[in-house]
Automatic annotation (TrEMBL):
Domain of life: Bacteria
Domain Amidase residue range list: 20-406
GO molecular function: catalytic activity
Pfam families listed in its UniProt record: Amidase
Matching PANTHER family: GLUTAMYL-TRNA(GLN) AMIDOTRANSFERASE SUBUNIT A, TRANSAMIDASE
Start and end residues of each stretch annotated as Disordered: 121-143
Name of the protein described by the UniProt record: Amidase
């Protein structure tokens, strides 16, 4: 069941939260052996949460909605292990702000979903893509995306510092939303890059993400109910060469479907200043990761060499390079705000192509990093597939704080694709 369907069923008395919990437990028992999306799941704890909701005098707007939580997000009653040895079994004793908000709204926290180590690398990908278990579900929010795609929870929380929400959404054929930076508190999430770290959200239905936007009290913004007359920019971005033929074809097909619904789709070539955004993102992540993981490396020198190199500044990034990267990002953010005023949304690839075969590599985040650094909202819309029958997502980007517009247009785009 989608989050919206659960809310209606519980509110109308057709199902209790306990019913939803039992159905969720059954779904996990059926799908989890193949998908392996969870690092921690306790059926008894889920039943206890449901019982508390059913016995409450008043229920919140998410009563009974099942939520998977990426295992770099703190939960008071479950371990938060970051997929690393040092934190195995560690219970922080408090909820992250986003989890706290969801519980206050009546949500059921199903369990902790698989992440790569500290949500900052490739190591730790046991989760399999529900569409093809030989392929990655993407990362670092591997388990969250796969759990939603497999129907083991209605919605799930991930994070994005590069492409860790949008790329898995594309690979798993679901909606993925990276909100405007800092519109949802990231208190209680493992820090990698304060400039880029953003909570991510997954759902199979766009209405569920709109429901979450209400719960997290996002800003009002235009929410069109039709593509007719909308002005959509088709942006291949300066890193277009990283895309595979399947994604190039998908972007073209997406434009055709949108035009068929009356949208005006126009080519957007970003000014040359955007050509260096990918490099700026890389410098900022390396610089901020150096301080974020210093204590981890000092305490656990057997961490993956990636973290040792980051802390040791193996790339020899200088303060001048860091200053340039921050200044360049600021310049591009201001420039994109001006450019985006001329469009209802920008359409761009959510990933380089279909999910790669194998579990050791979670895929290329090249198509995502510039949007993350720009701190704009991005919503990946499903509906298209590639030559191997695997999902391909298209991203819809708007100006900062226009998240609700991006959500609405992504939903309309998927509807147009499915109808086309």
């Amino acid at each position: 069941m989608t989050a919206g369907a659960i809310v209606r069923a519980v509110a109308e008395g057709r199902h209790s939260a306990a019913d939803i919990a039992e159905a969720t437990i059954a779904a996990i028992e059926h799908r989890e052996p193949d998908v392996q999306a969870f690092d921690y799941f306790d059926a008894g704890l889920l039943r206890a949460q449901a019982a508390a909701i059913d016995s409450a005098g008043s229920r919140g707007p998410l009563a009974g909605v099942t939520v998977g939580v990426k295992d770099v997000i703190a939960t008071h009653d479950m371990p938060t292990a970051h997929n690393t040895r040092r934190y195995e079994g560690v219970r922080p004793g408090v909820d992250a702000a986003c989890v706290d908000t969801l519980r206050a709204a009546g949500a059921l926290i199903v369990g902790k979903t698989v992440t790569t180590e500290f949500a900052a690398g490739q190591r730790g990908g046991k989760t399999r893509n529900p569409h093809d278990p030989t392929r990655t579900p993407g990362g670092s929010s591997s388990g969250s995306a796969a759990a939603v795609a497999a129907g083991m929870c209605a919605v799930a929380l991930g994070t994005q510092t590069g492409g860790s929400t949008i790329r898995p959404a594309s690979f798993n054929g679901i909606f993925g939303w990276k909100p405007t930076w800092n519109v949802i508190s990231r208190e209680g999430l493992k820090v990698y890059s304060l400039t880029c770290d953003t909570l991510g959200l997954y759902a199979r239905d766009i209405g569920d993400l709109e429901l979450l936007a209400d719960v997290f009290d996002l800003d009002a913004a235009p929410t069109p109910d039709s593509l007719e007359g909308l002005r959509i920019a088709l942006c291949r971005t300066p890193v277009w060469d990283a895309t595979e033929p399947a994604m190039r074809d998908a972007l073209g097909r997406g434009a055709t479907f949108l035009r068929g619904q009356g949208a005006q789709v126009v080519e957007l070539e970003l000014p040359s200043i955007f050509n260096d955004l990918h490099a700026a993102h890389s410098i900022i992540l390396a610089r901020e990761g150096r301080s974020a993981f210093l204590n981890e490396v000092r305490r656990c020198p057997d961490l993956h060499p990636q973290f040792l190199d980051m802390v040791g500044n193996a790339r020899q990034i200088t303060p001048d390079q860091a200053r340039w990267a921050y200044a360049h990002a600021d310049t591009c953010r201001a420039a994109f705000d001006e450019i985006a005023q001329g469009f209802d949304a920008v359409m761009t690839p959510s990933a380089c192509g279909e999910a790669p075969v194998g579990l050791d590599y979670t895929g290329d985040a090249t198509m995502n990093s510039m949007w993350t650094l720009l701190q704009v909202p991005v919503v990946s819309a499903p509906g298209l597939t590639g030559p191997n029958g695997m999902p391909l997502g298209l991203s819809f980007v708007t100006r900062r704080y226009a998240d609700r517009t991006a959500l609405a247009i992504a939903g309309l785009a998927t509807q147009a694709i499915l109808e086309g």
